[in-house]
Write a structure and sequence with these properties.
Elements: H1 16-24, E1 27-30, E2 34-40, E3 47-51, H2 60-77, E4 84-90, H3 99-122
Parallel strand pairs: 3-4
Antiparallel strand pairs: 1-2, 2-4
Helix pairs in contact: 2-3
Length: about 120
């Protein structure tokens, strides 16, 4: 049997209080397309929350495509990410970006957050 990465409920941020905690204690990574906020957790695995607003991607098809790409990138990288709660927010340029540009941006953010979280835990 193949060990597949998945996006089960225990790796999602679902409650408003969970999102609020990340917004208050955030380590930030930002570029022209995405902003990712991270806050350490004690669960032993990373969790993902999405904040893709209608203001930045008016059409549902655009928002859904962005969310699908973010979830897929998270699934592929969740085993190397630190134990953090992550909130990904899209900027207006995201809706016109290609899928490969979004994956590259996310890869850059994951690597940056790994380094930043390593610094925080060593202090």
């Amino acid at each position: 049997m193949v060990n597949r990465a998945c996006f089960k409920p225990h790796v999602r941020l679902l409650k408003p209080a969970e999102f609020s905690r990340v917004f208050k204690q955030a380590i930030r990574s930002s570029d022209r397309m995405l902003t990712i906020l991270a806050a350490p957790n004690d669960l032993g695995h990373p969790r993902l929350g999405l904040a893709i607003s209608k203001k930045n991607a008016r059409r549902a098809v655009d928002r859904n495509r962005i969310k699908r790409i973010i979830r897929e990138s998270f699934r592929q990288n969740q085993n190397i990410l630190p134990d953090t709660d992550l909130v990904v927010m899209a900027k207006p340029q995201t809706k016109s970006a290609t899928n490969s540009e979004l994956f590259a941006s996310l890869e850059h953010h994951w690597n940056r957050l790994i380094k930043q979280c390593a610094k925080c835990s060593s202090q």
